[in-house]
UniProtKB/TrEMBL annotation:
The chain crosses the membrane at residues 12-35, 47-71, 83-101, 225-249, 255-276, 288-306, 312-330, 351-372, 378-396. It is a multi-pass membrane protein. The keyword Membrane applies. It is found in: Cell membrane. The keyword Cell membrane applies. GO terms for molecular function: transmembrane transporter activity. It comes from Streptosporangium carneum. This is MFS transporter. Pfam families: MFS_1 (PF07690). Keywords: Cell membrane, Membrane, Transmembrane, Transmembrane helix. GO terms for cellular component: plasma membrane.
Length: 418
């Protein structure tokens, strides 16, 4: 991103709000499993349910929210979802302080937060498309991506220190407050948001729930891209738990070494996100999308050669660095591509359907690979995932899509940039 490329005051507030909530999320990374184990004496099955079951149920809860969001102003929805996450998370330290915290409460809070996350992402993509002209979307998405990886580098070490000093509940408080600050930041964006086309919002019908998927599946470029991202993200996330078992168990790595193996390579995501726009300018959007999407699939199979000691640690760091760098290039390009291939009146439904699909597939593949890890051993299951990832480039769009024409509407013009 070139120095001095300004996207306006409104985007600045939105970007700041995103960074604040992202930092809070990474500060509290792993806090719920720790609370479940340390405070509630939960077993492995219960801990696994916090991530897999909660994500799946949260995705199901979010299904009707996509059509609901589509025909409402997006900024109030964003503020509302931040406040929902703030209130839900805050119940955990309050219940803990009064000695009434239960595993069921942790599970319910996880479901609410997962559903609010999906809804927020759908609304934020639609809001961004009304806030900025098309030529600035890649710059904006690259800045979000770089912020994601920056908070990934900073958040877990700070959160780990806070957990060591104050306990995991303290980081949940920090995460809750970050959503409150995010809501205040989004409120400060101000400006006049375009009205949705359907001024009087009717009750959501059963057919509306599938509108996002209909749009994706009818588009020759979005359809394979959805399958690619759902399979890729699901397989990568499914192997994370198995890799932890392998490294912290048979291979004898210490917790700090395990943390270093994943924290340090995040610098690759920061670098990749900063190169995304220059690469698109030079080589074109479609070529960068396909090349970066292909290269990111090649790295995980290298974990088949993981061994103990310094060599093994360097191998994991090298694999993660290459993988994350390619993802740092791919993610903002694909996010922009997806927005460009979706008309403004369908963005919220499309992004909601997309997030629901990827969340559900990740939960399913995590559960399946947990079973495979138990039957075949963690290393064999990791290798199998790496081999399957090599097939994901086949699901990338083969040809550049024709420009999309926005339908005629009576919506107000987008707010001008400062």
């Amino acid at each position: 991103m070139r120095s001095g490329h300004r996207l306006g005051r409104q985007f600045g507030w939105l970007w700041g709000a995103y960074g604040t909530s992202a930092l809070g999320t990474w500060l509290a990374f792993g806090a719920f499993p720790l609370i479940a184990v340390q405070a509630l004496h939960a077993g492995p099955a219960e801990v696994a349910a916090l991530s897999s079951v909660a994500a799946a149920v949260g995705a199901a809860v979010a299904v009707p929210l996509g059509p609901w969001v589509e025909f409402r102003r997006k900024r109030p929805v964003l503020i509302g979802m931040d406040l929902v996450r703030f209130a839900a998370l805050l119940t955990v330290p309050v219940a803990f302080a009064f000695g009434v915290l239960s595993f069921v409460q942790l599970l319910l809070v996880s479901v609410v937060v997962a559903a609010a996350d999906i809804t927020f992402r759908a609304a934020s993509g639609a809001y961004l498309k009304t806030l900025l002209p098309a030529e600035d979307l890649l710059v904006a998405n690259a800045r979000f991506e770089s912020t994601t990886w920056t908070t990934t580098i900073i958040g877990p070490p700070l959160g780990g220190a806070a957990i060591g000093l104050l306990g995991p509940v303290a980081t949940v408080v920090a995460d809750a407050v970050s959503y409150l600050l995010s809501a205040l930041g989004i409120r400060a964006t101000g400006g006049q948001e375009p009205r949705p086309e359907r001024r009087e919002v009717a009750r959501v019908r059963a057919g509306d729930l599938l509108d996002g998927w209909r749009h994706i599946l009818a588009d020759a470029t979005l359809r394979p891209l959805l399958f690619n991202t759902a399979l890729f993200n699901g397989l990568v996330m499914a192997t994370d738990a198995l890799l932890a078992v392998l490294m912290l168990g048979p291979l004898g790595f210490t917790p700090w070494q395990y943390g270093l193996a994943f924290a340090a390579p995040a610098i690759g995501g920061l670098l990749g996100s900063r190169l995304a726009r220059p690469l698109v300018t030079r080589f074109g959007q479609h070529r960068v999308l396909v090349v970066a999407g292909t290269l990111r699939a090649l790295w995980p199979v290298g974990l088949a050669f993981l061994g103990p000691g310094t060599g093994g640690l360097l191998l994991v760091m090298g694999v993660e660095l290459g993988l994350i760098f390619c993802c740092g290039v791919f993610n903002p390009v694909y996010a922009t591509y997806r927005l460009e291939r979706t008309t403004t009146d369908r963005v919220a439904r499309t992004l909601s359907a997309w997030a629901v699909t990827t969340k559900a597939s990740t939960a399913l593949l995590t559960a399946v690979w947990g079973v495979l890890g138990g039957l075949l051993g963690p290393r064999t299951a990791i290798v199998l995932a790496g081999v399957l990832l090599l097939t994901t480039p086949l699901l990338l769009p083969r040809r550049a899509a024709a420009p999309l024409t926005e339908p005629e509407s009576e919506s107000e013009s987008a707010p001008s940039r400062a």
